[in-house]
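re: that complex we talked abt at group meeting.

here r the seqs, copy pasted straight from the sheet so there may be weird spacing, ignore it
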Amino acid sequence: MSKAIGIAKEVLSPRGLEWLKVDVCNCYAGNHNSEVATDKLLRHEQIKWVDDNLSELHLLVADAEEMPAYRRALKVLSDALYGKPVAHMMYVDASNQALQLYAVLTSCKATALVCNLATRQARADAYSMLAEALNEVLGCSVFNRKNCKKALMTTLYGSRESDVQIMCAMHNYEKSDVNEIQDALAKLALDLGVELYPDGEDSFLKVAFNEAMVKIAPNAMKAMAQIQKLNKLGRESYMWAMPDGFIVKYDVKKDVEVSFDFEYQGIVESMEFVEEDVYMADKKSAGMAPNIIHSVDGWICRQLILFIANQGRFITTTHDAFGVHLNDVDMLKNKYDDLLVALNGSNLLEQIIKQVANGASSIPVVSQEGDLVEEDIRASIYSLC
Amino acid sequence: MELEECKSQYGVEMLFDTSDKKALLVVLLAHAGRRVSESKVNDIKALIQSDDEELVDLILIDFLMIVGNPAFGKVQKENYSFLEASKKNSKRMFMLKDLYRSVYGMLSLKRIFPDSSERLKASAKLIKILNKVIISIKMKEVYDYDEEKRTNNIVYCWYSFPLDMIQKGRYEFFRMPMIEVPDEWGEGIKGGYQLNKTSIVKNKGYKNQPKIVCDVVNALQSMAWGLNHDCFLSPEVIAIEEYNLIHDESQAKIDANPDKYKFNSAVNMADVRTKSLSVCKQFVNGYDMFHFQWNYDARGRVYASGYDLNPQGDSYKKGAIVPKVVE
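got the structure back, here u go
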């Protein structure tokens, strides 16, 4: 049986203390009532914000985004500032990890610049960059970080409803408000003086969104489109092996509507279900790209867990967020960079694609010749933040 | 034996063991206060076109577990009704859906009726067969939010589960943290809980993973956790804070998906979740440290088991636990 591993009570290193201040800022975030989004500040600004507000931090508990975690971080801070040993785990999140992985798998510096992998000391915000690009494409200023965020997130995981997502975010609609969304889309097209369905199939907003995405993350979008071509009509299952031997096997899900009439107490009722457990790819299957990207983020996560745990240190994870002792955050970040550097020079994506294609006559080609270099990755301080 | 009296993980799991399905059926039927008549059993056999007694038992267990809904941790009540317990389950359609999907994992209905449409029909017939035996379905006129009148089927169950049955159901659905380091996973060896074993990869993923892959989840399982005893606040104040957090998160869920949660309120959801969180916290509070079972999804992402307390959960679930401190 394995030995239990707890978290060590230690005096913080100077870097550990800096990370604690970052943790205070991340837990507070200040998105509720404060004007300062402390989780988005630059590192030195975060440290300064804590130093400047030391005597008032406890008054901000009610506004904190992660209230229990914020309060705990404050308690630890009060001990750490007096040089007392502390046992505190901090979560650091990968900055748009799906984009990061596309960036290294295609060695694309432009994509890396969006997700803090080639930004060095600067801090990029993919959502704002996308909004800016979308405004540029459509010659307007109606798009912002807030209304573009969900569309970007879901697109990277296979959704084809970027226009719907943006309309929902702009007008506070539910996805089921189909008519309202359609009306809002038509009104926006009128305001902008563009055709609602320029190519007869996709709305102007979806077309513009894709164009904006290609602008900010060119190789990522190309790779995603190529990977989606691996979906084969009628194929039920896909398998591939990761470098550590994990075998990915996933069955293709398809929603089918099941309905029937049921007589009860003399009344005939019609019942309808959406059934997911029927498997078969169709031409609209969108799972291939997100599944491949998740298999790569799963591999990264496994490497980090083994690396930290083998040193007898505490680690936990929520996929793209990693919790370690404050004194271990730099070690974690360095290992994360090592893994991304290794992927940047690898042909992992090509290997996975070959396995998925499984001897098919035409295999999609994804360019891995890019301009992202090791130094970009190692010098970028916000890849985990 | 009470939960607090258990001195080992095995003891705790024995308390919740549901592997003896036959014994479980006897208990369930005893609590139902009546036995399913032979003619009803024959109706079920005709429905599944088999004389297999064991299969009938499995279906009955599925049915009773779903109807009694012990997994949601309701307290013992005379004339227990879905309406009182959870409005979500007040409609016959929900019960039909649950039966159709055979959520208890025994897959009895699914095995017999692999075709979804046939299974749906069979579920409806089963409800019809067992109606008036252990449940009663009543028609009731209700009004939708848009003031449109329609007829709703309210399901009343005529029996109640004792507390230990409720806990058994809860344990199967929302696994509690483990009070010993979980069993190690290995090539062809199931780890995690000592009883109620699951696979290293969930659902239809590839089960036969190499040792190094097993070692990752073994490492996560060895991480020790404790409750977050807040230094600033009393347990009572924390409980209020947790309630508020759960309420706000429930409200956000409802706002994001009003159709799905049309029979729920944030207050109702917060009441239920707070209660079960407090049972879970009370349990682990009696031990020096606790652990989580970890396994994979088909793509190789890691997941911790457990509903009320979970390092991958909502802010209150995460906020309630901290890594165990070693000096």
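couple things i noticed - The radius of gyration of chain A is 24 Å. The first strand of chain A starts at residue 7 and ends at 8.
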